Amino acid sequence: MADQCCASKSGTTALNDPRWRRILWIALIVNAMMFGVEIAAGVAADSRALQADALDFLGDAANYAISLGVAGMALAWRARAALVKAATMLAFGLWVIGSTAWAFVNGSAPHAETMGIVGALALAANVVVALLLFRYRTGDANMRSVWICSRNDAIGNLAVLAAALGVFGTGQGWPDLVVAAIMAVLALWGSVEVFRQARIELATVRAQ
Q1: The domain that contains 42 carries what CATH number?
Q2: Which of 105, 108, 110, 111 is most deeply packed, by most CB within 10 A?
Q3: What is the domain count for the chain?
Q4: CA atoms of 123 and 128, how far apart (whole Å)
Q5: Greatest CA span in the chain, whole angstroms?
Q6: Are the C-beta atoms of residues 115 and 192 closer than 8 Å to each other?
Q7: CB atoms < 10 A from the CB of 184, how many?
Q8: For residues 64 and 186, what is the distance between their CA atoms, to the nearest angstrom?
Q9: Are 93 and 185 in contact (CB under 8 A)?
């Protein structure tokens, strides 16, 4: 109960915090730029993990834009926005699972060096964003969804680097596919977390 109260106060205070909005703008710009870099590199390197991470960057950029749009609104509207974001995370996870299954049957070994270089760049970008957002990780569902996205991205980038090493060491594409599947699971897990908290907040609003 105490944790919930603290989370609520943290979210309420941060909603009007210019620093929160500024961080969201930085995160939005970084994610939009990294989407362009990773999708081009993912296609060029034939890497499902890079392509999945690129789409994750695109989804996060859209989520940050939604968060900026509802930051000053009532809790009910912020919770509804979180539900939309949970749905996009779910859709991303399902798409990656389908793409990975297709590549397992038809794919080839990706270019490990490109995966490593772009994966390291993406990791640096996501670690910076995650550190900026760390203090807001205990806010409402909308704020928590932003933190979960940045956290999952950093974990995903570490996995991409591991996949690059795996592809380089084995000369085969299966490490790339394994990492893409892990990223899909992270997206599905994150969507469940956000969806659960948003439903609780909507129930609280209705009970008032």
Answers
A1: 1.20.1510
A2: 110
A3: 1
A4: 9
A5: 60
A6: no
A7: 22
A8: 18
A9: yes
Distance from C-alpha of 163 to C-alpha of 111, rounded to nearest angstrom = 11
> What are the DSSP calls for 27-86, one per residue?
HHHHHHHHHHHHHHHHHHHT-HHHHHHHHHHHHHHHHHHHHHHHTTS-HHHHHHHHHHHH
Domain extent, residue 166, equals 2-207
What the block records as the tokens of 199 is 């439903």
Q: Which single residue is written with the structure tokens 């203090």?
A: 135
Structure tokens at 158: 């570490």
**Is residue 180 within 8 Å of 49, Cβ to Cβ?**
yes
pLDDT 10s digit of each residue in the chain, 208 long? 333 333 333 344 445 578 878 888 998 899 899 989 988 998 888 888 888 788 778 777 877 777 777 666 676 777 777 788 788 778 877 877 887 777 777 766 788 888 899 989 999 998 888 888 887 777 666 667 677 777 777 887 888 898 889 988 888 888 888 888 887 887 788 788 778 878 887 887 777 7
Contact 86, 198 (CB under 8 A): yes
Check: CB of residue 50 under 8 Å from CB of residue 38: yes
